[in-house]
Amino acid sequence: MDIYDSLLIDKIKLITIDKYLSIFGKRINGDIICTLFTIFNLGYILYDDQWYHFNENYHGWRIITDMEILQEMNVNLVCSILKKCNMVNYTIDLTKISQYINIGNISSKSVDRMRSNLFLSGFKNKLDKKPILRFLDCVYDFELKSSRPGRPNDFFLRRYFVDEELIDYILKILASTLTPGNKLRSLLFFIGNGRNGKTALANILKFALGEYAAIPNVSLFLGKSVSSDKANPHMVELNNAHLAICEEPDGRSVSITGDAKAITGNVGYIKARSLYKDLENIFIDLLPIINTNDKLTINNVDTALMDRIIVIPFTQRFIPKYMGSKREENEKFADILWQGNHSKIFAPAFMKLLLDHYQNDYTNLTPPKKVYDATYEFILRGDHPGRFIKQRLCYTGNEQDKIKLEDVYIIYKKWYKNYVNGGVFHYTTEDLRLDFAKYKVYFEQISNSTSKENKCPQTVDILKGYKFY
Questions:
Q1: The pTM is what?
Q2: Which domain of life is it from (predicted)?
């Protein structure tokens, strides 16, 4: 909307207020004040499950309370209307309104009645769905692809990752969070062994994205899912966020929750409720990022999760300067410049980097070898059949090399009892077949030659092109 249209709409509102007062303004009361407030703020204030106010200085919608609305009516309404009158060269007599506000009382019941006039069902589910990113001083439109002037500095990323290909890939993934939606349908893990910049990068990302970044408890993604009939405030917090950043879980071996699968599986609306509130539909389509050490294992990896997990390896390590004599090749001196609240300084420059790396289409984004290898190793750490394939099976490509399913099962059972758990082995040949298929290792059924005793042909499951180490 340009300035001319905006001023024209403002003048129409003022004419409507003037006409309303000429008819109903002989005796002023709280309801009349609320009606004037409604007309004047039409398009800027509305009600769904709570009040929303469009703040021009903030460039977006903000949640406000009944008390803030009452304060706005009692303190600012008359001045705001007169200010608009001056802008559009129009005159309204607000003497009676001003006198009533000075001595009268606008009750909360009058504000309650405003809710029906300004009610817009499902408004909160429409917030932040367009490819537009709000800043404190501007709006960035991804359809226009307009970029503000700036001189970004990516020095801190080079300290963390060294590899330019890896830096470019990470920036493209993080840039995907500037608009709604988990573009890669992925669950991102920042993994390292401590003092390697994971938290510093996450902090800069938080400062850059502001309210678009949620900070829920990691149990929402790793652990046990909360049933929809129980309160789950962490889930409610994710409504309309672009990104969720979680710190590492307490346990070393954890499961990815059903909620995490739903969120990364493009479900969209999920039922959840806050404490002492009713169930509501929450729109969640975001990228989860989990900071963790390199000891974490996932114990419920399936085919779908294998395609969603992405691991960003943090291989550098930052040590205090007094330990310089003991520094190893991959260690660097820690710099407080990138730590704690200092990182807030670099958020604008980091945002410029993200804007420059944003892509309209993420379907062809290919991970570098370092990311692929780190992801593969992370999955294998908690997936025993995958580790067995890597350690005990050798791919030859020769179809003359054949192993029976029963033989693979026997060897796997011995390996499991020796290296994983010596207890009861609850695992079938069919389980093994399905787990091997996750790694594109498939058993074929071939017919055995019939014997004189048994004229019916028998089928045997065979693994071709492999042999044991």
A1: 0.63
A2: Eukaryota
